[in-house]
Amino acid sequence: MSWKGPTALFAAWVIHDFEEAFAFSASCDRLADRTGIEQLRITPQQSWIAVGLMGILVAAACGRGVRSTGKSATYRAVVAGLEAHVVTHLGGSVAQRGYTAGVATVLPIMLPGALMARRELQRDGCELRFRDTVNGVALLLPAALVCQVVARLIRRVSAVKN
């Protein structure tokens, strides 16, 4: 296995999550307005903090992918989980009947990056399995929630200090 799959996956994630971070607070505001759930609101700073924290996980997983020649369960879970993430973006936009943060780059950027990583794994005899997708969802969904909670806590601590 080369470094191309993990690098393509991480680069796609970075581009995709930049778009997501730029638009996430506005998407959350629209959702809070529609549902009346004020706790859904997030500041732009919190969005960037959460994306940065998630970036640490994705970068570490991609590094493990290179070092383990694709055998790392964490890397395989992240590849499969980011593929599944495409569906969540599309589903969210359908449910909200409009643009949601990340949907503009999920098909042209995130999906090809994940598919390139998948193809490299296949080529090297490490084909992804359904279990990898389950593991990816089990890893990435809670990680995203933890990143959001930590981002909110960091902003609160910062606001109290000022």
SSE order in H/E notation? HHHHH
Shape: globular
Instruction: Tell me the radius of gyration.
Output: 16 Å
Give the distance, in angstroms, between the N- and C-terminal Cα atoms: 49 Å
Which range best describes the helical content: under 10%, 10-25%, 25-40%, 40-55%, 55-70% or over 70%?
Answer: over 70%
What's the total number of strands? 0
- Uncertain residue segments: none
Strand content: under 5%
Largest sheet: none
User: What count of helical segments does DSSP give?
Assistant: 5
- Mean pLDDT, to the nearest integer, reads 93
Query: Quaternary state, please?
Result: single chain
Secondary-structure-derived class: mainly alpha
Structural overview:
With 162 residues, this protein is mostly helical. It is built from 5 helices and no strands. The protein is globular, with a radius of gyration of 16 Å. The protein starts with a helix and ends with a helix.
